[in-house]
Amino acid sequence: MNIDYKGYSIITASELDDGTNLWNGRYRILDDNGIVVYESFVEPLQDQEKAHEAANVEARAWIDRR
């Protein structure tokens, strides 16, 4: 998913880790030129939707701390 937030673009996704069978919420934050300024994962979760939402929350929190 790609959303705009406070002048940044946030790209979030959830990826299943085959080894642990847990979902990793991944996020990338891009500046207004499309350059990745930060990328990270959230703690693995058992539910895909919760991992995706956690990534969205963490990305917004990172931007808010700027």
Kindly summarize this structure in a few lines.
The chain has one helix and four strands.
Chart the SSEs and their pairings.
Elements: E1 2-5, E2 8-17, E3 22-30, E4 36-41, H1 48-64
Antiparallel strand pairs: 1-2, 2-3, 3-4
Helical content class:
25-40%
Question: What is the count of β-strands?
Answer: 4
Strand order of the largest sheet: 1-2-3-4
Strand content: 35-45%
- Low-confidence spans: none
SSE-based structural type = alpha+beta
SSE sequence, one letter per element = EEEEH
Radius of gyration: 12 Å
Q: Describe the main β-sheet briefly.
A: 4 strands, antiparallel
Q: Give the helix tally.
A: 1
Looking at this protein, list some descriptive labels.
1 helix, 4-stranded antiparallel β-sheet, single chain, alpha+beta, 66 residues
Any overview of this molecule?
The structure is a single chain. With 66 residues, the chain is of the alpha+beta class. It is built from one helix and four strands; from the N terminus they run ββββα. It has one helix at residues 48-64, and strands at residues 2-5, 8-17, 22-30, 36-41. Strands 1-2-3-4 form a four-stranded antiparallel β-sheet, covered by helices on one side. A hairpin with a 2-residue loop joins strand 1 and strand 2. The longest helix has 17 residues, at 48-64. The chain starts with a strand and ends with a helix.
